[in-house]
Amino acid sequence: MAKLFLVFGISGSGKTTVLAKVGNARTVSVGTEILKAYSRKFKGMDRDAIKFKELETYSLLASTRSSIFKRLAGLAGTLLLDTHACLQAGNGYVQGLSLRDCDILRGRCKAILYIDANTKEILARRKHDSSRKRANLSAEELDRLRDINVSLSMAYALQLQVPVYIVRNADAGDAAKEIEGIVERS
Fold first, then answer.
1. b/e map of 76-106 (b: 16 or more CB within 10 Å)?
2. What's the topology of domain 3-185?
3. What's residue 45's pLDDT?
4. Does residue 112 surpass a pLDDT of 90?
5. What is the reported pTM?
């Protein structure tokens, strides 16, 4: 049975960069796994465009995500699940976990890691990352999204009965070392 860690953070916080530097666990992108599962239905759609489909196809997304969590929970080793507490989709928000997901993960998830950076850094990363198509948010909108994500992280932690660690990403190497320490202690 896998030792799981949920890793949240808003787009541009540096989750993927930090997790690539963590040496004592394997990272699995839940978004990539969802894209693989959706490949027949949404052939050719990029990972960022799927956010805007989620509100239309929420029940499909929820059952797909639950199936992915169930499969990952059955694996061996230590897994960092790179995902989101919530996503902004159009003028709404879609939560990253359902109660069903929490039931699957309860007892298997050891902690929630929330990777964060200051607002100016996140805005700059989002602006300069040409590999992704992200919404152009103001500092105020970004801070509101962060507040929602941190609040949902705490709610998920309550459901899963695990701690939340907020990892500041001022330097990806330092943040990765902090995560390695949390993984070792958990």
1. eebbbbbbbbbbbbeeebbbbbbeebbebbe
2. Rossmann fold (3.40.50)
3. 63
4. yes
5. 0.89
